[in-house]
TrEMBL record:
Keyword Transit peptide: no
Xref: InterPro entries: DUF938, SAM-dependent_MTases_sf
Record's keyword terms, sorted: Methyltransferase, Transferase
Top-level lineage group: Bacteria
Pfam families tied to this protein: DUF938
PANTHER family: UPF0585 PROTEIN CG18661 (PTHR20974)
Keyword Methyltransferase part of the UniProt annotation: yes
GO biological process: methylation
Name this polypeptide is given: Methylase
GO MF annotation list: methyltransferase activity
Length: 199
């Protein structure tokens, strides 16, 4: 069956939505990087109908995203674009905001670097970036559960792992992004929000 289900998406969608309602209040066009199963897109799209939510992911994940979209029948949630963050073939934009959940620790670090370069290209001046997931602080895990999660990730694939907040924030700064907020979220996750410069 094409439609995939993520228990993590089900658990974290309400706390994320509570933040996005305010953060994206003045936005219209949002690019989601790594739409995964497609659950977040239809949930946020249903609750934030003024937003045009552009899904994207590697083609291997498109079937599930499309299945969720077809079931939800939301006109503001768009079919997935093929996006490999490491390539230079990104959507044109410009977008008012970029959202990505639980991607930084799955990608190789070089892909995280490439993702921020791409975000810098497609975000409009003054646009917003919202990244959700677990992050280390000062090179240290913020909880025992995050340390265990990191070990499980590395056992699955050596390139995976929880990223350090300072390192990720440095990537954002190189693209002219300024940290606006660092929201503590359930299960030792965070929702980081940056704003692009106006020039």
């Amino acid at each position: 069956m094409s439609k995939q289900f993520s228990a993590a998406c089900e658990r974290n969608r309400e706390p994320i939505l509570a933040v996005l309602r305010d953060v994206l209040a003045d936005c219209r066009q949002v690019l989601e990087i790594g739409s995964g199963t497609g659950q977040h897109a239809v949930y946020f799209g249903a609750h934030l109908p003024r937003l045009q939510w552009q899904t994207s992911d590697l083609p291997c994940n498109h079937a599930s995203i499309i299945a969720w979209q077809q079931e939800a029948r939301l006109p503001n949630v768009l079919p997935p674009l093929a996006l490999d963050v490491a390539s230079t073939d990104w959507p044109q934009g410009p977008y008012d905001a970029v959202f990505s959940a639980n991607t930084c620790h799955i990608m190789a670090w070089q892909e995280v670097e490439a993702m921020f370069v791409g975000i810098g290209r497609v975000l409009r001046p003054g646009g917003l970036v919202c990244i959700y997931g677990p992050f280390n602080e000062g090179g240290r895990f913020t909880s025992i559960s995050n340390a265990q999660f990191d070990a499980a990730l590395k056992a699955q694939a050596p390139h995976m792992g929880i990223r350090d907040f300072d390192a990720v924030n440095a990537l954002a700064a190189r693209q002219g992004l300024t940290l606006l907020a660092d929201h503590a979220m359930p299960a030792n996750n965070r929702l980081l929000v940056w704003r692009a410069g106006m020039d």
